[in-house]
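seq:
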Amino acid sequence: MRYLIALLFFLLGTNYTFGQIKFGIRTGISTSGSQYHDIDVFDKDGIKEFSMNVKNANYGIHGGLVIKIKKNSFVFQPEVLFNSNKVDYSITNNPPVVLDSILHEKYQYLDIPLFIGWQKGILKLNGGPVGHIYVANSSEIKEKIAGYQQRFKPLTLGWQVGFGLELWKFLVDFRYEGNFTKYGSHIEFFGKSYEFDKSPSRFLVSVGFLFGEKK
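struct:
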């Protein structure tokens, strides 16, 4: 990721090769694009404690800064966005009458997409890598279930592709995101790591405004 950031500063430092540089802000929502299977959690003696699944990946919100560098039809667009989302987990014991509840976790990340794209008129197509820098979280699971630990990686990587519209200084973007890590990779019970069998994906919709331009 540090090499990508270094590339960004290099491009900004050599902006005479580009037709224009614009700065702006962006905000939007996201929702999960995946369905997940149950994971079975066992205690230290190998006895099944309960099953766990994603009941609902609620809408997340994001917002932050945009830099758009454009020459002819080529666009390079790095962004720095604060992302917060909430996930509901279904916790079911065996038999279910003992424990059957919904517990919540909230996550905050700093997302850094680095887009390369093409623009013709108001239509823009783009895609590229995105880094997710872990910031903080809160968890009802940790509060209510013994043996639960969280092992968040400081940085995870993914990718986004999509299209957008640019009307004067206003931006509207629709994107799809995939990731290279499996969902729930932070979950650990009784010293054992768990994860769901799919990588997380989500759909993102955002609006923005370009408030500055340097030629």
